[in-house]
Amino acid sequence: MIYYIAFILIGIGIYGILTQKNLFKFLVSLTIIDTAINIFIISLGYIEGKDVPIYSQYTTVANFVDPLPQALVLTAIVIGVGTLALGASLLIKVYEKYETLEVEEIAAKEAKE
């Protein structure tokens, strides 16, 4: 079931990238795709009936869920936040220069110059 949610979110993000002419909405669509991929990777690492990968004297290694997808997603979240911050700062600079975030208006202003 969670796979379907991830695929629906990826579809929404791709639809937003293909249809939106506003750069802020484009950045939000990229963030939605990033989140959906993280959800998908985490859902791949889940195994029904297994324990959290924390060692104790009462559990064996055979009962653990693989911690690698969790580590990869944690790294991907940090990279995603950095990418979002960079994209937001670039949007601020674009808005300061062109006073709009609409792609068609920016292209028209650039053609005049």
TrEMBL record:
TM stretches of this protein: 26-47, 67-92
UniProt organism field: Thermosipho atlanticus DSM 15807
Its membrane topology: Multi-pass membrane protein
UniProt KW keywords: Cell membrane, Membrane, Transmembrane, Transmembrane helix
InterPro entries named among the record's database cross-references: CPA3_antiporter_subunitC (IPR050601), NUOK/Mnh_C1-like (IPR039428)
Subcellular location, record wording: Cell membrane
Database matches in Gene3D superfamilies: 1.10.287.3510
Gene Ontology, cellular component aspect: plasma membrane
Organism superkingdom: Bacteria
The protein, known as: Membrane bound protein complex subunit mbxG
Family, per entry: Belongs to the CPA3 antiporters (TC 2.A.63) subunit C family.
